[in-house]
Structures
1.
Amino acid sequence: MSDFDQQIFRLPRPLRLESGAVLPHVEVAYHTYGHLNASRDNVVWVCHALTANADVLSWWPGLFGKDTHFDPADWFIVCANILGSCYGSTGPLTPNPETEEVAYQQFPLLTIRDLVSAHEALREHLALPRIHTLIGGSLGGQQAVEWAIQRPELFENLVLLATSAQHSAWGIAFNEAQRLAIQADPTYTSATPDGGAAGLRAARAVALLSYRSYEAYDLAQTEPNESVLTDFRASSYQRYQGDKLVARFNAHSYVTLSRAMDSHNVGRGRGGVKAALGRIRARTLVIGITSDVLFPPSEQQLLAQHIQGALYAEMGSQYGHDGFLIETAQITHFLERFYAPSYVSQPAPQLSI
């Protein structure tokens, strides 16, 4: 059971969403790497962030891949493209197989719990009775913590990076600013796959301000020539990053998934965040980033405080929120300590760099 090519799983039945809407036909694109061992206890499941895809080896190098901590030679690694995305799973641009109609902005509201429902259906399809490690950062971490609450007996270890128990007012405001940029693009309602491209470019420029830090921009984008009056390095960087995203993503999926992120609240219907986190039984490592302005360390500290026995680690990084994708050497260091036998039975100390 291993395939470096993308595979498609078709849910055997319609998927009822948390909103009450129903997706009658659902496909989930996924990748697997490595092989299940005889005892089927070497499964690592990766939940990806907003604009990533199921090919985790391509976007998390240094942590996943040959000679890394999660080497497919040792682990059976699963990563599924989330619902609402544009990398193979059912989303706003997926034609209805019966009518051939495309939903565009009429695609129903997805929540984090809906994304987890698709993961759970795929896990059952793959016949994986136990997952050694569930890991995710940012929106991926939101999925991971929700899944660990829903199925506490399923996961042995849980690794959460730069994420939260509830999406903050600050994070929602950033997402709304990005959606306003997209909706201000008159082509967004044109019912075409590339509708809203100019708005998406602007949205990405807004998002980058929450993904990186003052220090990162100061070090990499400060103008070396003091005589420059326009077309600054930082300006061209924003345009370049916007163009990159438009070339590989679409505005409809971006709006859908940012709204799903806003919906994240593990305490909804469970008596609050503290009670919900108390359901988790996996050994848990929570990693915060000192320079993260989108998911500040206080949000990870809250997770560690209310997940029984959780270990909390904090890493310094100039890269802000994006540090969870970049600082793989630090993450590997924390993982090695987390999995070391001496830490198995300890209470929740803060690990130091």
2.
Amino acid sequence: MIIRSLLDTDLYKFTMMQAVLHQHPAAQVAYRFRCRTPGVDLSPFIDEIRAEIDALCTLRFADDELAYLRGLRYIKTDFVDFLRLFQLDARYVRLEAVPGASGGIGLEIEGPWLHTIPFEVPLLAIVNEVWFRHQPPADEAEGLRHLQAKIERLQALPDCTVSDFGTRRRYSHDWHAKILPILRDGLGARFAGTSNVEFARRYDMTPHGTMAHEFLQAFQALGPRLVDSQKAALEAWVHEYRGDLGVALSDVVGLAAFLRDFDLYFCKLFDGVRHDSGDPFEWAERVIAHFEQHRIDPRQRTLVFSDSLDAELVLRLHERFGARSKLAFGIGTNLTNDLGPKPINVVIKMVECNGQPVAKISDSPGKGMGGDPGYMAYLRQVFGLPPEPVSDAD
């Protein structure tokens, strides 16, 4: 099995799932897979992927896993009690070969949000590992050399931290497990931990994560008005965590719209903001200026960078902003899938909630995603964004 524990996922799946249990347990959603890398055909491996999904859906939480979750200060007892009964259901997943589709397959998840939210990360990890099983073998020695070179570069960081955010696009489960202790031992206090809950538990690391795009996307259908959907999602998060997990995601409908909604109230309530698309230098300048405009010292807030990072970009960002704000870096594919074979860029995004379309509009061309081009155009209009040709409605 590729996935051997339901903890083998990103922390924010659990934090969002808890909020869904408490606030929107009846919400119905749909997700869609997309491969952004041209020329990838996953259809020959569809039976292998399906078998891994079936195996995933046999897993249950073990008592020691539940005890670990219960020990996290922001995880509540009733949520752990719910997880004791939880099991993923393969009936919520549709997988088929689709000639001409991105990646050559159609992969959709549809059902209750509470019961489908954990699928995304393990499904992407499965797709990646199955794909790389059928590529020319990787050179682990080369991968370790690459990793050591990154560690040596990152050792120059004096006062900020790097975390592993690489579960969904890793080369394999076993490679991921192998490199994390090397990162911890090589970087020392500069290595803050991992987004992967299984490995955080195994290696006594700190698990990291707050919210993903889907949480704010869902409120496009759950909130009172579309134009207020980001504010409604942030309010719901504050209500659930009361000051914990205080990093807000900034690019669900673009940074400009986010900053309009992220007023003095939210500037005071949240500890920081996460970057996931667009030019990171421009983003940081605008976020710092926004805090200063609201009389918030940006040195008391954290800028979290998590988009396509490598060691060199981390160092450049630290040089520019290290004295102006607290910084944290989440490095994904460049840590967990750098063994020679070219990584593939695969995503699963929410496209519908309670029968209504929802979408992500990115600050990077090609990273937006929605199932309804008309809705994408309407979303841009409501949030005052310029029109953009739709190229991701497949």
3.
Amino acid sequence: MRRLALASLAAAPLLKRRRPAACQTPLTEVEARRVLQLFDGLLFDEEYGDIHLYDISVEEEQQVEGSGGDATYGELREEILEWLLAHCEMRPQDILCDLGSGSGRALLYLALRTGLPAVGVELSPTRHRCAETLKMLAQPFLCGEVTFVQGDLSETGPQRHATVVLFANKLFSEDIFRAVAR
């Protein structure tokens, strides 16, 4: 509880900038990074020296692998996401999508930075729950609607409306790339 109170105090300057009724401007790079750092501070387990929220059980790992997914977990760094923002012209009508969204950090960062609506699709139930937790924490800072779906990214879902798609997992097979492209 103490950590939550400290994080709330640290977030106070950012919260003052947010308008409760409607967000007018997305966060700056510095502000978006600060929000994600606050999440890390809230979720960090000092006993283990790690954020265990992203870890999945051996059974869940086998389920993910057995359905054609890959249970290996990695995060895109903010520098890569900033590069994407600098090189991909975003329009107000765009909808962001992260296929294989994991904990949702990359998608939330992009949503915080652009103010655009976003959808993430993740096969792992544990990582999906993590994304929902992070979305709940990010809610005061988000301008657009963010949706996380737990399911197979090759199946039709809300991602079909996306205009900007992040599909940044080198571990997916060529077959999965083809299925997603369809």
